[in-house]
């Protein structure tokens, strides 16, 4: 039987994996050399108990964005740091991390946890060997566990954030913000519990075994994990709800089905290209693009479905979907959405020449993400067709986009869009896109809506433009 080809990560990721592994081996070797003579203090059954707790914490980890996850493994690793010689916790942290993933992910996860535990052990030992006093009070244990937890947190999150950044081609800062910025306070506040668990295990209160007390203290740990999990689930549920709203909006007009999804795919590719492969920015633009027309929910349906020429008053109401969309999502401003989403919703109908709406911004006054989505929205509208004109071919739509460079669109974005278009992405041809997304479909004979995708320019009421 032929051997399965060994899966390899990108070279930079592989280098990070090897550095983490070698770093762990070097530091663990040093700890064994320096502290190998210290008494173990715990028996085999004790080590099995703590190992079981570490395995349990790994099994109930909480998923995070960009293929990351987190758990309360660190609490038990820190408790072992306080209970055993410095080499024990890093060794168990390395061994108990295997979860049947790709080999390099397994090695990295085990190595970075072992390395973080080793640095935590060194920090703890430093303050045990160099006591800290405040008057007659010995603060060595408290200061030591604080230093150990900080060392573990910084080592763990720095290595994981670097891996995410390299694997997903996003900035280090963005990877940190998405995964760990909101966890830092909760993480550090839980660290004293590690010392409490260690001391509780050393001084049994129930049936002569400290493990019962440790298990009792798992209750607040469970609820902290529940909070993390619910926060992630709430954000996912919120995204799903908005997705359903957009689907309901598009269902009113079969002719423009999958409009926001196609706009989002175009915008994501364009954002990724202009940002040099920044996947976090591309995904943020994609998410915002799915919501760019959310404000149309607040527009009367008869106006959205009108096939005739719009009056100036009607067009003004259609235009208001940008501000109404931002108002609709304003309750979630501090919970689920960052400014990028609001920039897209508010400004995706602004024009490079300053003749757009709602604020008549021009050039670089328009946020880049709004310029990106505005171009994607217009191309989708051109190739989708409207009641007053037939759909353009992809070639005709590209020529129109190029002709409007410097007028409606950012010239640099037009250049990037042209390069993408020439690579023949799935979104280039609308019918091919629809067939790929939902199977072969026939052209609808329903009366299409006259939204602002088919609305007059703010300076020329009654006319039709290339706006999406």
From TrEMBL:
Residues 234-433 form the HD-GYP domain. Residues 437-468 are annotated as: Disordered. SUPFAM superfamilies: HD-domain/PDEase-like (SSF109604). The chain crosses the membrane at residues 13-35, 74-95, 107-127, 139-167, 179-200, 206-223. Residues 441-468 have a biased composition (Low complexity). The keyword Transmembrane applies. Keywords: Membrane, Transmembrane, Transmembrane helix. Pfam families: HD_5 (PF13487), MASE9 (PF20972). InterPro entries: Cyclic_di-GMP/3'3'-cGAMP_PDE (IPR052020), HD/PDEase_dom (IPR003607), HD_GYP_dom (IPR037522), MASE9 (IPR048430). This is HD domain-containing protein. The lineage of its organism: Bacteria, Thermotogati, Deinococcota, Deinococci, Thermales.
